[in-house]
């Protein structure tokens, strides 16, 4: 009789996802679910999801969850955590959500040192709403609303959220990772686990930024999208730990 050595994490449901082929959301979902299983916190974890590609994440995570208005997930998570300090509360947000309409919420949650965890998926574009330019869109990148490429003279440079939040005292752990290959997936999982452990120890705010592909809105095949991420996004958004109180910083 053969032994099963690889299975779906208990924290993930069996529902087939709606994500486009080659999208990295599915990988990130699995890593988060594996961490929750390994930490044994499934029954006390609450997911807060906003508007965006991950708006249906509650169908994929077998967790209690709360929908938030666009960009307001950190504020909602703050309320839940303060009312239920014994729970593990995390937000799962895209770059358009967290860095545009929700920028104030995430900055002040980090500034206050709210004891929540944020998973920030950065694919440099608005995914769900049609591929518009996002705060993280690269200089020269063509999108639905920047047909000639992002022009710094008109809209400024891409925002580096991890670097910015790392300057705030309330932020205890800030890391940027990618899931473009097995090695980076392992690093990403370790960072996600650390971010949850920061909350469990009651230290303060933690965020992991995950660089991700968006093959559909980038107009690329899944393989081309991974190559574009490696050649363009990683140089613009360097991977590493930007804040780790008590540990080494980038």
Radius of gyration: 17 Å
Written as H for each helix and E for each strand, in order along the chain, the element string is: HEEHEHHEHHEHEHHE
Separate helix tally: 9
Q: Which CATH class applies here?
A: Alpha Beta
Estimate percent helicity.
25-40%
Sheet with the most strands, sense and barrel status: 7 strands, mixed
Based on the model shown, name its key terms.
single chain; 250 residues; alpha/beta; Rossmann fold; 7-stranded mixed beta sheet
Brief synopsis:
The chain has 250 residues and is of the alpha/beta class. Helix content is 36%, strand content 17%. The mean pLDDT is 95.
Can you describe what's shown?
With 250 residues, the protein is of the alpha/beta class. The protein contains nine helices and seven strands, in the order αββαβααβααβαβααβ. It has one domain (25-244): Rossmann fold. Helix content is 36%, strand content 17%. A seven-stranded mixed beta sheet has the order 2-1-3-4-6-5-7, sandwiched between helices. Strand 5, helix 7 and strand 6 (205-211) form a beta-alpha-beta unit. The mean pLDDT is 95.
